Every structure is written in structure tokens, then in C-alpha cells.
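Chapter summary example.
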Amino acid sequence: MSSHPVIVIGAGIIGASIGYHLATRGADVTLVDAGLPGSGVTRHSFGWMGRAPGDLSAAGELRALGRDHWARLARQVPGLAVHWSGALVWGEDFASIPTRSGQAATREPQLTSPPVCSEFRPDDGWLNPALATERLISAAREAGASVRLGSPVTRLIRSADGSIAGVELGSESLPASTAVVAAGIGSTALCATVGVSLPMASSPAVMVRLRAPSGLVQGIVANDLFEARQDADGTVLMPLDYDKESSTAELMRAGEMARRLFMESFNGAEETTLLSAEIGWRPMTADGEPAVGYSDVPGLYIAVAHPGITLAAVIGDAATEEILNRMLG
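The structure predicted for these 329 residues follows.
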């Protein structure tokens, strides 16, 4: 398919998934990003993959498909680990969930005050988003994809007939018959260079990273006060609502509050230290729905969605099928 080169703009989790799926299907694909793989909003993602019980909405069905596709990728891609640990949830934020008594202390034995009633979601899981992105890009390279990092795309290029002809990287141009815009909140500006409107309202969230003794948190824990999960190396992730923090000092104060809350919530957490507290700007379309598919400009494919971690695997597979069918049709 060398006569139909594809450029994927954005090496976050969605761009990496599309690049991997295209490469393994034999497409001539180049993945381009201004930074390192997963260094944008992907790095600040909690990585929770799940679906509320009884959620039969289209979004819920898509999340369920995303989970299945991640299980497939974990079998296909070396080093890509998905941890199907389950999720223990309770509180008013999960009021629609049926409750059961007495299981919290069994599921999360280090909780200092296990709730009387909680719900355990055995099918939920999590992954390390940045590591998963790196593994997908490495596998895409092995399948023949080219990767250009440190190469910001300044604009899309159209041919005389109005279709996509390539992308501009500063003073350099790369030809392409298809450009996939998977650049998160930067997608709006890129689409505007060819007259395509992509209204977005980025949603900020704070991600706190802690260092704690390993094994304190067995799976995902979520309630009205906090959400937490723990990597094998002891790193704990705690996402917080954005409270208009506008300086490093304010972010560190938020992180310190999260650290104290974690120490109060888990036995054995006395030596927990704060590693970082950073803002991630989640790409949200104006209507809240995923923007995935071809635009009115021939050859321009858009792939922006939230929650990107959950949906990246299924989007990569579906987008690849659509792009290859369009090329061969």
C-alpha cells in the first residue's frame, strides 16, 4: 500500500493504537508527534477500564468492547500488560449500584475503615497508559511503521482537488493520502488548517503520584473521597478534580492533601511520599461524544475521544478497518 501513505498525528494512546493496527495490516504508516510517546494527556490518565453494571447505553457498549479489545492486544503485543484486578466502589457517586456487605475487607485488606456496603466489579481493570503506548509504538515499528518524534505538525496540506496531500513539519513536508488527527486538544487547530471545525472543551484533572510500600492497594478503589490504584513498584495514582490550581505550589498542596488522605485510608502507608501532582487536559468534544471518522475533507480522518484509554483499542481496530476499506474501495 505504499501508494497510499497514512500519517497518524499524535503518539498518545489512541494514535499509537491506530498506528499499530494499520502497520500490522500492512499499511504504509508514519506516526508523528511533537514529543515522546504518551507524554501528553495519556501520561496523566488513571487507566481505569470498566463499565457500570446495567449501563446499556451506546457509550457503555463501546466501553465493554474497548475492554475486550484490550484483552486481545495484551495477547498480541509483547510487554503490554492489562491488570484485571477488579474495582471496589462505594458511596453516593455510585448510588445506582446494588450494595453488598462484608466484602471490602476481603478485597482490600489494608483499608483502615472498610465500608459496610460496597460493590465489587470483577471485570474492571487498569493499565499503565504511558507504558502501553510505548509498547504499541514499539510493536508498530516492528511491523514496519515509521515513527517521527520531536516533530510538531504545523498544518495539514490539501491538493488541488481539495483532498489531503500531506502534512507540514515546519520547513519539511510529508506526503500522505490519509492524515489521521489524533492529537488530543491540539486536534482543533490542526483541523482548522483545512477548514474543518472540531469544537472541543478540554476538561482538566489533577493526577497525583505517590510512592508507597507495594501491595497496599490490591485493585482499583473508588469512593466519594478518593480513587486510587497501585503499580507493582509501589507507585500510587490518585486522580483529583481540578480546583482551579494555577501554580506548582497549589498543585503540590493538592498532592499533599491526597497523600494524607491515602495514609489515613490504608494501613501500612505511613512512609508514603509525594512524587508529583500535575494537570492533564483531557480532550472532550463539545457534545461529549467521541469524534471518530472521516471528515468532509477527503483523506482527513479524526480520532478524538474520552475516555481515550478505555476506547483506544477498539478505536484503533475500527479506524484501521475503515481507512483500509476506503483506500481499497
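To summarize the output: The longest strand covers residues 273-282.
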